[in-house]
Amino acid sequence: MKVLIISDTHGKIENVKMILERTIPLGVGTVLHCGDYVSDARLLQKYYPGVEIYYVYGNCDVGFGGAYSEVVTIEGVSFYMTHGHRYGVKWGEYDDLIIDAIAHEAQVAVCGHSHCAHIERKEDVLLLNPGSMTQPRDGKYPSYAIVEVKGGQIKEANIMQIIENENVIIHPISNRYRAR
Q1: Residues 2-47: pLDDT tens digits?
Q2: Nearest to residue 84, comparing CAs of 51, 115, 119?
């Protein structure tokens, strides 16, 4: 199964809908929305009832009330998802996020908030920030991530950009990242 990871849609889901229309036929069955705005994730649930959509609240989701972090298990791989504003990820500080992911026995830590795409392996955890689908701060192109999981293993993880309505891999990571 492929997992689409997004964050920081900020009221604009056109890009997400375009990506889902292209990736559902390729095996995307789950979406993780890392906050800002949860109302966008709820809208996506209405548009795509056959897709599992999980979300956490971000710093711009004040007043909605809900979880700022959650552990989701997909095909035997556990994802610790959070927005990131409580961890300092905006300034490239991921250590506390990794500590919490390990405490929750997660194999993948996903967050947003910085609007900058980031992927690396730390302490046996795949750390992934998909960037922003609407307001990227690390370039002019929106970004998202796709992680393929199967049988308790991470098969592939990529951060993608949308360039002129085409999907382009910007940070490919293949088979180097496997579940513990």
Answers
A1: 999 999 999 999 999 999 999 999 999 999 999 999 999 999 999 9
A2: 115
User: Which residue shows structure tokens 């056109």?
Assistant: 14
Q: Give backbone dihedrals phi and psi of 17, rounded to 5 degrees, phi first.
A: -60, -40
Contacts of 21 (CB under 8 A, 6+ apart): none
- Secondary structure string (H, E, C) spanning 79-131: EEEECCCCCCHHHCCCHHHHHHHHHCCCCEEECCCCCCEEEEEECCEEEEEEC
Interval 108-163: pLDDT, tens: 999 998 989 999 999 999 999 999 988 888 888 899 999 999 999 999 999 998 88
| Euclidean distance between the first and the last CA atom of the chain, given in angstroms as a whole number | 18
Structural domains of the chain in order of their starting residue, each with its CATH number:
2-174 (3.60.21.10)
Question: The sheet that has 77-82: what strands, in order across it?
Answer: 69-74, 77-82, 108-110, 125-130, 117-122
Tell the residue number behind the tokens 């194999």, with chain if given.
107
CA 68 and chain centroid, separation: 14
For 82, list phi and psi in degrees, rounded to 5: -155, 165
